[in-house]
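Researcher: I'd like a structural prediction for the single chain below. Treat it as a standalone chain; there are no partners to consider.
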Amino acid sequence: MFRLSLSARIAFAQLAQMIVFFAAIIFILGSTSRLFDKTAFLSERLEPAVEKLNRIDEQLSSATALLESARQEDLRRADRMLVRNRPIRHIRTLATQEFPALAASPDIDRETAARLLSAADFFRTAPAPGTAAAMDSEVEIDGLRIKLTGAMQDPPKARIVALELAARLQAIRTSVRNASRHTAQVTTDARHELVSRRSTLWTSILAVSIGSLILSIVFLIAAIRSTRPIGDITLAVRRLAAGDLSHVKIRASRELEETADAINHLASTFRAQREAGAVEREREVRTERLAVVGRMASAVAHEIRNPLNSISLNIDLLADFMESPEHREGRGREVIATVQREIDRLNEITEDYLQFGRMPKAVIGPCNVTAVVKETCDFMAREMREGNVAVTIDAFDNTARVLSDEGQLRQALVNILRNSVEAMPEGGTISIRLSAVADGIELTIADTGQGIPDSQMARLFEPFATTKRNGTGLGLAFVQQVVTESGGKVRIESGQGKGTTVRITLARAA
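Model: Treating it as a single chain, here is the predicted structure.
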């Protein structure tokens, strides 16, 4: 018995879904296009015709009112209005061209076309026996207008002609108003029909969408039933990704069994790579530990060598002074003071290494970053004053709070500010700015110091890397560790002779 393959079943289900959706889209697009055509006909052709009729009615009404006043100035104005606007000519254009064109439009039904033609009939029918139709009254109106112009010097006669012309215009205006009301009613009915069609369209779209959805669900269920074994394959792949290298056994179609065999082969390969990788990682860890121990031993030896040499030399001097009583008092105290300073230096170096190596786990919580900055500057005020360094603080909010360990953040700021002071031996300015950014609060510390050479920029946060004569290379490494544990970011911008700017971004506390 012939059976479709898994890929053929899935392709058939997808093809059926595509056919259903394309049919629904074609139906929706066709219905929407017809609705848009009807809307365009109403707004671009029918409604302008109604507006044109209303405008002709207003012109005839104004001319009639001026003629009935019988004042010479009004009569001249009425004459100019009729010459300039030519309302009768526009009526003829509507009756012979525009209304027939509207009725012949494919966007309307036969009933609407017949109603438009009946509106045009108002212009073709004489309003009273013995008078011309509105569309054929241009010659009559021009004759009365010329007659009125010739009678301007005879007011009584001019009044009679003006009233006759006004009566004729009033009769034409009646035809225009009838045609306007008829056309306006056609427009209103077309608008109501448009609303009804729009409602019907939305109902049809909803019905077609629901039908398409139901058919899609049916095809989807069929596809799911055909691809159910793929779920077992997916679970096996996830277990493999999670590190489970156990054997996979699946009874399904030929394609899925081959996939299961490939997964088992891949698991075997991963198992072998894992065993080899474990050995390699163990060797790398031992190598790295030895390298770190070597770098730290080298750094410690380098840092304590000079103080130890100084202490040894001064102890030798002290021994010489002890043998010479005449130098015992004054020079002995100087030597002892020098030894004490070097011992303090050794203690400071030891504390720096211990602080970096045994830094306690950060206690992250909300802290007022503006207060921390100001208090740290107050703490270092004497050091900055002795270095002839001025500090400015620009905080956008004195109550702004960030998430960090307050104590460690203070020490990080001390390290940064001390670096800035040491980079300005002749004095300078430190500008501190707090600003709100998209991902929290940014603390910017900029100095006018000597800057950092480009060759050192890549190693700024590397432990034991320093450009200072007596530096341990742990200050900025400590800063990076504090900021990273707080979930923030730190970056440094500098250049030789251009000063240094440190930017720290921390998450804002709620």
